[in-house]
């Protein structure tokens, strides 16, 4: 075909053609900024929180971007998708690029551990020489001055206490309580600090007066009038199953000197049919949780309360806090409605027992002026303390009961980002010397957070063929071992676990002979007496001062020394120290890390069959090793093969922690202000590189671990109607709040304001 003679001649100039780059993904501001940069135009700057230009804060290579430092309260769902680059040795290079093409993993952003943290206002005192240990305030009295027989107990009981239980002398509260309950029929309110022996204070008089009906109470005679079918004489109520089990264990040891007296427990978590069978066979002393006892009073006809002489309410303030007021009213009402029998079905006169029904109320922290439980149950009660016995109980002023005098209390100011590493450093230094600490308890606010920290600290995943009850609650620990202690046992306990697992775990912790750590919620804060607990760590502060006193009371019991450590964040939480009104010594997280990470850190094993655990960066300084450990934890969560379970646990633990943070009692919310909590930094303390969404927006739907799939958690400590806690460890999400829904800073600010309003209107309650 011939050329038509047209010639196209375009002048392209001196520059080359440049193809236009199209940016997709991420946030629109980042796309606009990248587009302007590609066109050679200067980037426009938007101001972030506190007036910081986002353009400056988000420059590549800056340490303070990517973890929420530049998006101080921006919800995680609205942050740009970014990724990090690491060098061949796994160290962070600091260079990040926007997520512009599909296929790049979002959310993999890291930041330095010790930058952009708030500065603590607390001035730490220089290290002082160790002072002389204080005289124990809850220790037994000297055997030369006091003995159990002189208090009105029989020689049989006194001999059993001294020879079998190795108790030579009573404590102060026992000295004041036992004669009162043995010789009098009046109600009593027992108030003493934790670990002072309140349980034996009411058990010994009950057993003494029941034995008084027997011919052979002192070992003489050939028979006895009392046996298990002689009637129910005492009922003891406690708020948790664990405390009921402990009371039953103490009573069982005491009753070895009187085997014809029978006790049992009805606490839920097991078949009601078996509980009814034990009641039908006969029982003299019944230990129960309020919910399950109410159920039996309604439906178990063989449960006759006509012979009941004692009703003991142990940890009475906790019973009321957990919402058992209606059940307690019903129990007290049914017992009082039933006529008092003067002889049992065998015709045995009950003249040695109290001639009226005696109520005994016990607590370490209950105030005397505004307590409804005393109005429900007590009549002309005697107020008994470790120092005195006061008949005018109703007129007694409020009394503040502190921790045992020999308990050493300290605090650590740790910012949110290095908080987890500080905990690991503290545990590592705790077990650095052999025999210095045998058992430690870590208190955490909610069950999901307990699950995450247990899975993080366990040395290896459980073996598939292990079918024991404690497979998921007992393991060897990683990160915190030392050359002096190569093996440290790790335990977890919370109310969402099935009752058989809880019982087996607590029993294993009691019997453990190696150094060990128990990670638990407040379910273990009341009344539990575990031998050789040397250290209590409040990783999450208690929801009220009373709970704080009970938590730290798990150590320094019966005259033993102990130590308690409280974690606080810089800012408003530092004011909590003055609120406690306790003399405490403090230190910073940096000092803990410097002291602890001078030795290698043992990482978790890949499998339980591995002979040795890998070591983390043994040639680095303490601070660099801390940053390497944080990076290792974050990369462990992002591992596609093994990290998904731990990542899910971290996200759920973070959400539950944020909700739990808002449930401090009203008077203390100024110290624990949810609006001041940095979500990005807090997420880093869970090994996350950005804060997950879903913190608010509807009620919690949480499946009970260990139960059949699809079963939702019922009210209480993981149980049924007869369970012992009417309030979940989880907090219902405030409806209408969705962290993923804030698209800019204004929306984030409105979300925080709405959250504050909801929290101010919410009722006060604690988590189990």
From TrEMBL:
<keyword id="KW-0378">Hydrolase</keyword>
<comment type="similarity">
    <text>Belongs to the DEAD box helicase family.</text>
</comment>
<feature type="domain" description="Helicase C-terminal">
    <location>
        <begin position="419"/>
        <end position="609"/>
    </location>
</feature>
<keyword id="KW-0698">rRNA processing</keyword>
<feature type="compositionally biased region" description="Basic and acidic residues">
    <location>
        <begin position="55"/>
        <end position="65"/>
    </location>
</feature>
<keyword id="KW-0347">Helicase</keyword>
<dbReference type="InterPro" id="IPR014001">
    <property type="entry name" value="Helicase_ATP-bd"/>
</dbReference>
<keyword id="KW-0694">RNA-binding</keyword>
<feature type="region of interest" description="Disordered">
    <location>
        <begin position="690"/>
        <end position="768"/>
    </location>
</feature>
<feature type="region of interest" description="Disordered">
    <location>
        <begin position="24"/>
        <end position="111"/>
    </location>
</feature>
<dbReference type="GO" id="GO:0004386">
    <property type="term" value="F:helicase activity"/>
</dbReference>
<feature type="domain" description="Helicase ATP-binding">
    <location>
        <begin position="179"/>
        <end position="384"/>
    </location>
</feature>
<keyword id="KW-0690">Ribosome biogenesis</keyword>
<keyword id="KW-0547">Nucleotide-binding</keyword>
<dbReference type="InterPro" id="IPR011545">
    <property type="entry name" value="DEAD/DEAH_box_helicase_dom"/>
</dbReference>
<keyword id="KW-0067">ATP-binding</keyword>
<dbReference type="Pfam" id="PF00270">
    <property type="entry name" value="DEAD"/>
</dbReference>
<feature type="compositionally biased region" description="Basic and acidic residues">
    <location>
        <begin position="24"/>
        <end position="33"/>
    </location>
</feature>
<feature type="compositionally biased region" description="Basic residues">
    <location>
        <begin position="702"/>
        <end position="714"/>
    </location>
</feature>
<dbReference type="Pfam" id="PF00271">
    <property type="entry name" value="Helicase_C"/>
</dbReference>
<keyword id="KW-0539">Nucleus</keyword>
<comment type="function">
    <text>RNA helicase.</text>
</comment>
<dbReference type="InterPro" id="IPR025313">
    <property type="entry name" value="SPB4-like_CTE"/>
</dbReference>
<feature type="compositionally biased region" description="Basic and acidic residues">
    <location>
        <begin position="746"/>
        <end position="757"/>
    </location>
</feature>
<feature type="compositionally biased region" description="Basic and acidic residues">
    <location>
        <begin position="715"/>
        <end position="736"/>
    </location>
</feature>
<dbReference type="Pfam" id="PF13959">
    <property type="entry name" value="CTE_SPB4"/>
</dbReference>
<dbReference type="InterPro" id="IPR001650">
    <property type="entry name" value="Helicase_C-like"/>
</dbReference>
<dbReference type="InterPro" id="IPR027417">
    <property type="entry name" value="P-loop_NTPase"/>
</dbReference>
<feature type="compositionally biased region" description="Polar residues">
    <location>
        <begin position="759"/>
        <end position="768"/>
    </location>
</feature>
<protein>
    <recommendedName>
        <fullName>ATP-dependent RNA helicase</fullName>
        <ecNumber>3.6.4.13</ecNumber>
    </recommendedName>
</protein>
């Amino acid at each position: 075909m011939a050329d038509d003679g047209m010639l196209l001649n375009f002048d392209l100039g001196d520059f080359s053609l440049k193809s236009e780059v199209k940016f997709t993904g991420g946030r629109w501001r980042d796309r606009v900024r990248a587009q302007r940069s590609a066109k050679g135009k200067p980037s426009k700057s938007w101001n972030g929180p506190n007036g910081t230009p986002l353009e400056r804060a988000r420059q590549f290579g800056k340490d303070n971007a990517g973890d929420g430092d530049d998006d101080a309260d921006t919800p995680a769902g609205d942050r740009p998708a970014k990724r990090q680059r690491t060098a061949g040795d796994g160290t962070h290079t600091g260079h990040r690029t926007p997520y512009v093409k599909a296929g790049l993993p979002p959310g993999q952003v890291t930041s330095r551990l010790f930058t952009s943290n708030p500065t603590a206002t607390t001035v730490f005192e220089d290290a002082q020489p160790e002072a002389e240990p204080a005289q124990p305030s809850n220790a037994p009295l000297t055997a030369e001055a006091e003995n159990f027989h002189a208090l009105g107990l029989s020689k049989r009981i006194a001999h059993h206490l001294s020879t079998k239980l190795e108790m030579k002398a009573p404590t102060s509260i026992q000295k004041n309580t036992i004669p009162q309950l043995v010789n009098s029929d009046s109600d009593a309110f027992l108030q003493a600090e934790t670990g002072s022996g309140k349980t034996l204070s009411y058990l010994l008089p009950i057993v003494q007066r029941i034995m008084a009906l027997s011919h052979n109470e002192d070992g003489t005679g050939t028979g006895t009038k009392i046996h298990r079918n002689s009637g129910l004489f005492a009922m003891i109520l406690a708020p948790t199953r664990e405390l009921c089990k402990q009371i039953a264990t103490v009573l069982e040891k005491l009753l070895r000197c009187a085997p014809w007296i029978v006790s049992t427990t009805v606490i839920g978590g097991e078949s009601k049919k078996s509980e009814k069978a034990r009641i039908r066979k006969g029982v003299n002393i019944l230990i129960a949780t309020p919910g399950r006892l109410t159920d039996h009073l309604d439906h178990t006809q063989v449960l006759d309360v006509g012979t009941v002489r004692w009703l003991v309410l142990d940890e009475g303030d906790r019973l009321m806090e957990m919402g058992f007021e209606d059940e307690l009213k019903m129990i007290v009402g049914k017992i009082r409605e039933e006529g008092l029998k003067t002889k049992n079905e065998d015709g045995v006169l009950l003249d040695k027992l109290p001639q009226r029904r005696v109520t005994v109320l016990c607590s370490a922290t209950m105030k005397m002026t505004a307590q409804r439980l005393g109005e429900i149950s007590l009549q002309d009660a005697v107020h008994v303390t470790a120092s005195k016995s006061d008949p005018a109980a109703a007129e007694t002023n409020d009394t503040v009961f502190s921790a045992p005098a020999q308990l050493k209390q300290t605090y650590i100011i740790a910012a949110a980002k290095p908080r987890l590493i500080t905990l690991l450093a503290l545990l590592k230094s705790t077990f650095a010397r052999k025999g210095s600490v045998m058992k430690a308890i870590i208190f955490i606010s909610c069950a999901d957070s307990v699950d995450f920290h247990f899975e993080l600290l366990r040395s290896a995943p459980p073996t598939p063929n292990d079918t024991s009850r404690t497979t998921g609650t007992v393991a060897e620990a990683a990160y915190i071992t030392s050359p002096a202690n190569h093996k440290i046992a790790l335990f977890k306990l919370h109310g969402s676990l099935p009752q058989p697992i809880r019982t087996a775990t607590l029993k294993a912790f009691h019997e453990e002979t190696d150094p060990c750590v128990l990670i638990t919620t407040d379910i273990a804060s009341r009344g539990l007496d575990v031998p050789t607990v040397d250290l209590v760590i409040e990783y999450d502060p208690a929801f009220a001062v009373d709970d704080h006193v009970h938590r730290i009371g798990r150590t320094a019991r019966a005259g033993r020394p102990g130590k308690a450590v409280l974690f606080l964040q810089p800012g408003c939480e530092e004011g909590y120290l003055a609120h406690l009104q306790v003399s405490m010594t403090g230190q910073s997280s940096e000092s803990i890390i410097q002291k602890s990470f001078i030795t290698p850190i043992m990482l978790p094993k890949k499998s339980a069959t591995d002979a040795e655990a890998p070591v983390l960066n043994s040639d680095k300084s303490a601070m660099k090793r801390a940053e390497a450990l944080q990076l290792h934890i974050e990369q462990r969560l992002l591992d596609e093969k093994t990290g998904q379970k731990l990542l899910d646990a971290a996200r759920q633990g973070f959400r539950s922690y944020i909700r739990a943070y808002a449930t401090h009692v009203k008077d203390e919310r100024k110290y624990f202000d949810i609006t001041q909590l940095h979500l990005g930094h807090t997420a880093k303390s869970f090994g996350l590189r950005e804060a997950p969404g879903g913190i608010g927006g509807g009620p919690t739907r949480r499946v009970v671990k260990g139960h059949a799939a699809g079963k939702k958690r019922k009210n209480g400590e993981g149980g049924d109607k007869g369970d012992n806690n009417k309030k979940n460890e989880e907090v219902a999400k405030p409806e209408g709040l969705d962290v993923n829904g804030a698209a800019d800073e204004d929306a984030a600010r409105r979300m925080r304001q709405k959250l504050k309003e909801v929290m101010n209107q919410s009722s006060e309650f604690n988590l189990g």
